[in-house]
Structure formats: C-alpha cells, structure tokens
Amino acid sequence: MSSGDREAIGLSKRLYIKTYGCQMNVYDSTRMADLLAPLGYRLVAASDEADMVILNTCHIREKAAEKVYSELGRLRALKAARAEAGGRMVLAVGGCVAQAEGAEILRRAPHVDIVFGPQTYHRLPDMVARTLLVPADAAARGLLDTEFPAEAKFDFLPEMAAPQGVAAILSVQEGCDKFCSFCVVPYTRGAEYSRPADDVLQEARRLVGAGAREITLLGQNVNAYHGAAPAGTKSAGGEWGLGRLIRALGEIPGLDRLRYTTSHPGDVDDALVTAHRDVPQLMPFLHLPVQSGSDRVLAAMNRKHTADAYRRLIERFRTARPDMAFSSDFIVGHPGESEVDFAATLRLVGDIGFAQAFSFKYSPRPGTPAAQETQVAEEAKAARLAALQEVLATQQRRFNESCRGRILPVLFDRPGRHRGQLIGRSPYLQSVHVEAPDEQLGAVVPVRILGAGQNSVAGTLDMRPDAAGVSA
Ligand code: SAH
Ligand code: SF4
Ligand code: F3S
Questions:
Q1: Segment 252-287, tens digit of pLDDT
Q2: How far is the CA of 186 from the centre of ligand 2 (A)?
Q3: pTM of the predicted model, to two decimals?
Q4: How confident is the model over 437-466, as pLDDT tens digits?
Q5: Are residues 448 and 388 in the same domain?
Q6: What separation in Å is there between the alpha carbon of 389 and the centre of ligand 2?
Q7: 441: part of which helix (H) or strand (E)?
Q8: The last residue of a domain, from among 402, 420, 437
C-alpha cells in the first residue's frame, strides 16, 4: 500500500492499547503506537471513544489469558454501539494469546478484526489499512497474521517516536530456546534473537536525547544476549554478550542508570558479573528467577541448574558488588513437587535473603510438557504459596528496614500524592517517598532513608555538599 493510500484513510484517529503481561509487551505497545502514528492514530487513555483498540495479551498463566476474553466481551458491546452511531472501531488482538490461539480468537470472538503475533506487529499498518478498505458492514472475516517471519521485525520498526520519560525500556533480545517444562514463552515468542549492538546503542542514545536517565534492557532471556558486535570494534565480525553491551552503554553521557531483565541463571557469565563490579551505572539489583530450591523439581522443570549452583552464583555477584540485592520468581506446585521439595525451596529462600520476589501457583499451559503430568492438588498449591509468600514478605520488610539510615541515590520519576512530595526509585527498585520540590523530577538525588514499610521506603533529601557523590 502506498503512503498516499494510507493518508487517504488516515485522518486523526484515537488509538487505545491495553497491555497485559511482561515489560516486553509494554515495550511492544510503545512500538505499535509508533508504527500507527503515520496513519493518523494518536494514543488515548480509554477505550470508550477509540477508533482502534489493541489488546496486547499475555498467555503465561491461565488467569492472564482468560482476562482477554472477558475484555473482548466488553468491547463487543462498545464496538456495536459505535457502529450504531455511524462510527467504526477496529479491534485487534496481539501478543502471546494471539500467537498461541490464533484463529481460535476469531472463532470465539468474530467481532475481532485483526489477530497478530509478537513477531508480526511491524506489519500492523498494512493490516489496519486492509481492514479499513473493506466497509464495516461487509462482514469480512478478521485478518490473521501469526507466523514467525524470516525477517526480523526490528529492521522494520520506525525510530522510537514518543519520548518514554526518565526511566525507559529497551528490548535487546527476544524469544527463548530454554523450553522450561511449564512455560509458553518459547512457543509464543519463538526462537532466541539478539539485536545488533549498534542498533541497541543508537536506540539508547535516542532515548537519552529524549530525556531518559535510566534504561532497562529487556529480553525474555536477556543475558542470553549475543548481538552482532559493532563495526570498527575489536570484536567486529563477532558477537557481544550482555556484559560487553553494558560496558558500551556505560559510556553514553547522561545515562545514569542501567538495569536488565529477565535473566536465566544458566546464562550468567564472568563478563556480566564483572560488569556489576566495574560499571557504576549498572544498578546493584538483579532479578534472577530460580523457580524452586529442589534439585529434583529443577530437573523436572528443565531448568538446567541446581539449587547450589544458584547459591554460588549469588555469591559471585555479592563478591563483585557487596551491596547487591536480589529478586526472584518462584513456582509452587509444579507436577511432582512434594512437601520435601517445597521445604528445599523455603531453605533456599532463607539462605539467600531476597529484597523482593514474585511467586505463583503452577498453572498448566496447553502444549507444554508439564501440563501432561499428574497435577499437584489445588489445596497443597494454595497452602505452599501462602507459606512462601509469608516468608518472602518478611524478607522484603527486613530488607527495606535494613536501608534505614543509608543514603541512596533516588531517581524521581513522578509526583507524590500531595504537593511538595515526589516519588522515585532507589537502586533496589524500591518506591521512595520524599518531600522535594518539583524541580527535582527527573533528577538522581541522594536521599537519607528514614522510614521503611512493606512495599516502599521514605526519606529526606541529603543536602550535604559532598552527598552527590555517594554510591548506593
Ligand atoms: N523469561 C522470564 C520470565 C518468564 S514468565 C524468565 O525466564 O524468567 C515470568 C515468570 O512467570 C516465570 O519466571 C515463572 O516464575 C512464572 N511462570 C511461567 N510459567 C508459569 C506457569 N505455567 N505457571 C505459573 N507460573 C509461571
Ligand atoms: Fe520460559 Fe524458561 Fe524461557 Fe524463562 S527461560 S522464558 S521460564 S522457557
Ligand atoms: Fe506473557 Fe508473553 Fe510476556 S506470555 S509474560 S506477554 S512473553
């Protein structure tokens, strides 16, 4: 379709994107908005008046996927009301439910116009244009595009258009080849792919130019990153790992903070550990999912590491950067998990001491190996989750308490509840509430932590003249 055709159908239109699931979906949603901007679509905050609604969906657990169909039910009425009033609402479903269920979505929800996958959203402008060329009442069947194309979508995305603010996200890697027994990601996102390092550096410079002070590098398995090394460097023609990429990002002026998520314990290498020692912008906080503390369950999960290997890994990070803190993901009630196995998980949690963590009941996912096994009883799952969450909540509170009296650099990224208050993030991703003037929004400022709660801490600006140089 020519750009003239696009203009012919592209007046100023309202686009609403509802994002479910992980940060990668959040990133993809920003790129979908960038792609549709040349067609005249601008983002709005609610679906009511929207000319186009995209649901960017998540398939990771049953509950996540169910939400999509209930939202589609609500949108059916909205779409019908628009049509009755002589208008038109285009309805699209993208993301991991779209990839996993494809045509099933069009069967269960025939009012959906477009179904597209995480690897085909660069084709959205054409799909939208094709949809709009058919009159709404011609009752055309919805478009379906969920293949895994040979081309890499990143090569077809426009430059990042909308500024993301002071804390930005940047996808560097996508897909997963690990095939953990419980997980849909290798099926919904496809094979592991790393963007060339040059592309990542350019996008990072653009983000910093648009006001970002912190960038979180994203990947389903971000430390499996192995992107093409930039031309003109020592490793040109070869590849860079994540540690090397982080060193290069550390040289961008104005970029104060770097993070990356989500990592797999099996892909941690020396370069990544030493980056935590040598790159001051790299935050001393790591989300490193372990899933279970039982070697039997870890083997059944196909995680390819033991509980002790995880303990040793944490020690390596702590040796490189003594103030490092950790977060993790846990699944309770994976098929085959006994009370003895669960006790091993509690032991691991006790040994490490997490600053925060996420924990889930195992949810059988269609097409994954663990879904075919004998399932753990629901009551056992619920009891284990409650016990684990109690321990993790205590550890989080304790960690927040341990920050009392410390001076932490805080990046203020939003106004607080009342005037004169700002909220920011500590190096450990804690929400920090501080009385501070609006001018400090977007700045990294030393804060003395005075109070600690379950999910946040509070403090005062540390105004000593030498305070600006403090490290975490
Ligand atoms: N790519 C990331 C995250 C995957 S999804 C990683 O490798 O860690 C985020 C978390 O959801 C996982 O770490 C896991 O704890 C949880 N999860 C994934 N599949 C699940 C399932 N079937 N049931 C319950 N939790 C699941
Ligand atoms: Fe899923 Fe495992 Fe890949 Fe993480 S490493 S995305 S849990 S298959
Ligand atoms: Fe969900 Fe897909 Fe992310 S299943 S967690 S949106 S990769």
A1: 999 999 999 999 999 999 999 999 999 999 999 999
A2: 7
A3: 0.94
A4: 999 999 999 999 999 999 999 999 987 765
A5: no
A6: 22
A7: none
A8: 402
